Amino acid sequence: MIKKINIIKNVNNPKSIHGMFPYRGKMSAIDANNILQKLKISNKIILDPFCGSGTLLIEASKYNKEVIGIDSNPVAYILCKAKINIQSLDYEITNFEKIKKKIKEIKISSIPKSILENFHKKTANEIVSYAKYFNEMSDYNKGCFMGAVALSARGCNHYKWTSNIVGKKIKPFRYISFEKNFRNKISKHYFPSKKNIKIINMDSRILTKKIKKNSIDLIISSPPYFDALDYTSYHNKFIIDLLGLKKENIKKNLIQKLDTYKKSMIKVFNEIDYVTKKNAKIIFIVGDKKNKDGNILKGNNFFTSIAPFKKFSIIERNYSNTSSQVIDKINKTKRKEQIIIWEKK
Fold it and tell me: Which CATH code, of 2.102.10.10, 3.10.180.10, 3.40.50.1000, 3.40.50.150, is assigned to 17-83+193-343?
């Protein structure tokens, strides 16, 4: 189809809607846009069955008729809604100000352990005080609240953590005004998206419960890492604890267990086959995996071996300026990323 996808040297874009919260494993919006344009994906009904924080949804909506995102992680679902359901800036600021007036500091004993152990006590108090009114926040402000938690975590640890990795605790913790971070997030990431996006909180192994047969023109997704990346850890864990969600219950519904990964992905492929139209394209952006024996298992070999679609092309590229590249340097590996394009007949 095409011979090359450009390697993006800088994939960071913190002033976009995508810089709202560092969802674990999220794709760069600049990279997503690059792929969509190079593959000439436009005027389609698109489904992303593993939409995560919604990067592909937002970028694909700029060029296509309708975009549908699926994810079973409630943190991803809340974040996607935050990026999609945006009101006027005056409305969002007013919503924040109304909650600000209700805030009262609460006792330290009512603060989740993960918050107490990673934040300055005063910052932790502010965070939990606002969390008490989470259900009164607009969808957009819920996402900004989440982002302010992550930003404050970095600040309390003297900005020694990267934007997407929770590192070693740096004590004594530094006080950071959560309220200020929250308010700044509202203005900084205000980039309303198009209204042709639908997000569903469900398991992709049962797509057919919500998506009609032969209704989708194109699937494009970056599926869960098949080295079982934990999507309930790092900054996601702070949000899970603050909202009183049960990490164990969330993990039960995620495709992230090594021993059942292959079986789960076969189920997803069967569902994709049912909901896609004849001649539909299915595009997966995948990576290599380092096995325990030190050998590299190529992502495209794994996924093409289990997919029901036999006609495909592959575009391969090196990781560039990503956390994966950093891990490769540490492990002395040279993993690559592949874009697999299947054609359904």
Answer: 3.40.50.150
CATH 3.40.50.150 residue ranges for the chain: 17-83+193-343
Q: Residue 236: enclosing H or E segment and its boundaries?
A: helix 235-242
CA distance 296 to 337: 12
Quote the pLDDT of residue 10: 46
Identify the pLDDT of residue 258. Answer: 78
Q: Do residues 202 and 74 touch, judged by C-beta distance below 8 A?
A: no
Residue type for position 59: E
pTM: 0.90
Q: By CB neighbour count within 10 A (0-12 exposed, 13-18 middle, 19+ buried), where does 79 fall?
A: buried
Distance CA 299, CA 277 (A): 25
Residue segments in the chain with a per-residue pLDDT below the cut of 50? 1-3, 7-11, 321-333, 335
- Find tokens 């030190």 and name the residue: 294
Inter-residue contact 239 to 231 (CB < 8 Å): no
Q: What Rg, from alpha-carbon coordinates, does the chain have?
A: 20
Token representation of residue 72:
């079973």
How many residues are there in the chain? 345
